[in-house]
Amino acid sequence: MNHPRKMPSLLIAMCSLGLILAACNRTESASDTRADVAEARAEGMENVADERRDASENRIDAQQDVEKAGADLMEQSAQGSRDVALAQAEAAHKVSIEKCEATTGDLRDACKEAADRNLDQAKTALN
């Protein structure tokens, strides 16, 4: 049982398929190929330029991070050195004050004043 109304649709579908398959085997013209190659080159060059720019920006950012880290390291190191020197001065002050306890009267007072002056001088030198 053939349906007469389906025959034209089937014929159109077969012709379309034949044209599509024929177009797949057809070579592109030389001018179309040149245009496509030029477009692919231009896109490739643009992509490479974009990646180079991104890589350069990333290097600059990384270098700035390294410089900032170096500055932070120097600052932290200097602060650490000041903290250690202050702790040493305070420890020496405590020892001096304890030694002053072995004396009495004006000698003790003079000894403690000298210890206090030494601590004050050390603190001033650290600032």
Detail the topology: elements first, then pairings.
Blueprint: H1 6-24, H2 30-100, H3 105-126
Helix pairs in contact: 2-3
Task: Describe it.
- This protein has one domain.
- It is mainly alpha-helical and 127 residues long.
- 88% of the residues lie in helices and 0% in strands.
- The chain contains 3 helices and no strands.
Task: Give a quick set of tags describing it.
127 residues, mainly alpha, 88% helix, rod-shaped
Number of strands: 0
Helix and strand run:
HHH
Mean pLDDT: 88
End-to-end distance? 107 Å
Tally the structural domains: 1
Radius of gyration: 44 Å
Structural class: mainly alpha
Number of discrete helical segments: 3
Short structural description:
The protein is mainly alpha-helical and 127 residues long. Helix content is 88%, strand content 0%.
